[in-house]
Amino acid sequence: MILTISEVFERFEKAETDADRINFLRANNTKTLRKVLACTFNPNIEFTTEGRWPNWKTSDVPTGVTYSDLHREFDRMYLFIKNHPKRPPTLTEKRSNELLIQMLEIMPHGDAVVMLNMMGKNLKVKGLTKELAEAAFGPNILNESI
Known about the structure:
By secondary structure, the chain is mostly helical. The protein has helices at residues 5-12, 18-27, 31-41, 70-73, 93-106, 109-119, 130-137. It is 45% helix and 0% strand.
């Protein structure tokens, strides 16, 4: 069973050493995890939200039972990345905000928080650094295609 990204980070924080953390990341290696790390630590990836978060209703459905999660929704992140080639030039700020709210509301609360923290460039995960991500997945992790 694949863990949600928020579950990966919750368990990651329990690892005691950097070697344990690196092994844990490698054991839970998914496309979405690598992309979350790239979006967080690559300074060239900028989000259109610029730290302005919409009001959204937290899903009260337990993790694993929700309609969607960050693994399923990540392919639409290009909508919120500045100058992404797939981002429609006609996408208004209002519509972008509506899409963001829709994504947040169908995910488990933990994944929604991870997504907002990623967009704010600070995952707030104890022990997780750019250097540790590069040690786990190599220096090209920051160039993961989004």
